[in-house]
Amino acid sequence: MIRRTPFVFALLAVLGCSGEGLPPAPAPTTSPPSAPPPAATSAAAETPAPKGPVAPIAKKEPHVTKIHGVELVDDYAWLRKKDTPEVLAYLRAENAYTEAMTAGLAPAKERIYGEMLSRLKESDEEVPFREGAYVYYTRTEKGKQYPFYCRKPVKGGDKAPEEILIDLNEIAKTEKFVGLGPLAVSEDGHLLAYGLDTTGFRQFVLHVRDLRTGKDLADRIERVTSVVFAKDGKTLLSTVEDPVTKRSYKVFRHNLGDDAAKDVLLYEEKDERFRLFAKRSSSKKLIFVESNSMTTSEVRFLPADKPQAPLTLVEPRAQDHEYDVDHHGDELVIRTNSPAKPGEAKSTNFRLVVAKVSSPGRASWKETIPHRKDVMIESIQLFSTFAVAFEREDGLRQIRVLDPKKLALDGSHRIALPEPIFTLRQGENREFDASFYRFRFESPTTPSTVYDYEPKKRALVLKKRTEVPNYDSSRYESKRVHATAKDGTKIPVSLLFKKGTNPDGKNPLFLYGYGSYGAPLFPMFSAPTFSLVDRGVVCAIAHIRGGGELGETWHEAGRMKTKMNTFTDFVDVTEGLVQMGWAAKDRIAIQGGSAGGLLMGAVLNMRPDLYRAAIADVPFVDVINTMLDESLPLTVEEFEEWGNPKKKDEFEYILRYSPYENVAKKAYPSILVNTSYNDSQVMYWEPAKWVAKLRAMKTDTNPLLLRIHLDPAGHGGKSGRYERMQEMAFKYAWLLDRLGVTDGT
User: Fold this and answer.
1) 20 to 30 A Cα–Cα from 560, which one of 35, 283, 611, 701?
2) Residue 50's pLDDT is what?
3) Is the pTM of this model over 0.70?
4) Are the C-beta atoms of 373 and 349 separated by less than 8 Å?
5) 328 is catalytic
């Protein structure tokens, strides 16, 4: 798990995923107006002093950190004192202030929510996938917050009786937050292992359900991060996390029916940069235990039918060598960034090699697909008669179908896709002997679509396109453009807008960005987004460096001591869209979440004049203090993404952009900050401290709002689908208000 990887808000915000909804909340009995919409001037000097609610002012208690000859003064470090009366009182005051400042938006929020709900088929069912003697699927029911996890026996077909495996709605009757973690079904189909989080802290307790009786066994495993059944259906391999740092660091073998104290430790990862994860091979013959840092990996395995066997190491770790492994016949299939020959540069976009299971080390590797400069091998999945590789090229995913006996480009082919701008996601492909490959296709204007591809026939079979009521794709258009960064690099940008929109310099713009961990942001379908587009807002994703849209080199160009590229790219994209006419220079709103919240904080410090409004979700803005505290979850692991501030040169570089340290006495645009008290990825005090410091230093009178979920919620906010839709409706209402967009414009 990456602390600040894209999360549900990131995907739902713009061009994200299909929408969800909730019955409208009752309007408040008193509704003071929202802060007035901005005038048509630069965001940093737009709004006269509002009358009405008074913002809470956090007290100052200077805390000094001396490092590398520099004194860092943190006036708001006291906000880390979780659960103390003074901290809770301050956070409640922030919530009350936000509620008072935005109460006038209630009608707009409910109207937008109604639109979102009207585009949602509330009762729906996913395409079933086969695993063993059953087909599995999820379905939703109108008015229910959570999906049902179900199955039917293959024998009997569609008329077979449904078996509900997990009903999260039932659990939610007694829990305010319900998060489902790792899932695994035994090969005989009798048992289901499932992880459950009821706090939002992404801390999962593993339960095992006997699907013949519907009852849970006595077995429980705390803090589980992944789980695999051995072939016998009686042995579990699970990875668990450290209770303090939340690093997945041990893998145990558990015999069902035994007390957890009897579990056998198979491997402990002692390097604090690395995390463990267990999985079955595509063939189901092997169990892999992967150990990964941000830049380095190592894989071990054992036979699935011999869970008592020791783990076999594939290749010892070497700094900056990343590899992953699958299995076919008597061979391991390995995706690696190792050099093809000694002395050569590493294969940044990865290459493919094979080795015998009996001789897995690098000395035995035989290359089948070489490194390609402009094409990244993202993943590979093996089947008995074909193989599928996901590739990234020119900011898009492609699917390549290969002969599993050769695994070579020669004789392979790509699946032809129906649109020029799209995203692909792997479907559920659990059967090694399958005759087809299932994947999901969508674009900014095409809802999520499930296809089965039959390699022998080269036939693409449409299984389902998500039904979106009250939606007409002919009314909208998507487009890929490029902005030029100051160093000449071309930055891809995905646009979505109402058909007929002209790049005349008058359009309100909503720009989203992320740009970290090599995580790509692909243009996807988001039904809720059309509440913005229908009002004339141009929605855009900036595919900035630090992400992975253009392969691993794109990531390398925006991490560690090249991180500034991420922020300057976003600024250059903003200015580029203005120059191209896609955005009015005084009507630009931006959003980012998690590491994208760091992006928001950095660009607001650098160029607050460019933006009218900004939404920062669970923003990672206190980079120096967080990365200095190795007791916090995941800090050590992320030294290879941001740097270690205990090293002078890395400290000095981080200090250039860390949002909290760079808040200054100047005018900022309107800012809405959202977080959760129980977020395990970005601790609540980061956004709380940032807001407190901004409020004390900024020279403008534009709204600065903090909303914090004090009830159980996580990195992605509330857990229910309707609750999330309410969150989005509020954000969109606020955003439109800040942009001065009415229902008629």
Assistant:
1) 611
2) 52
3) yes
4) yes
5) no
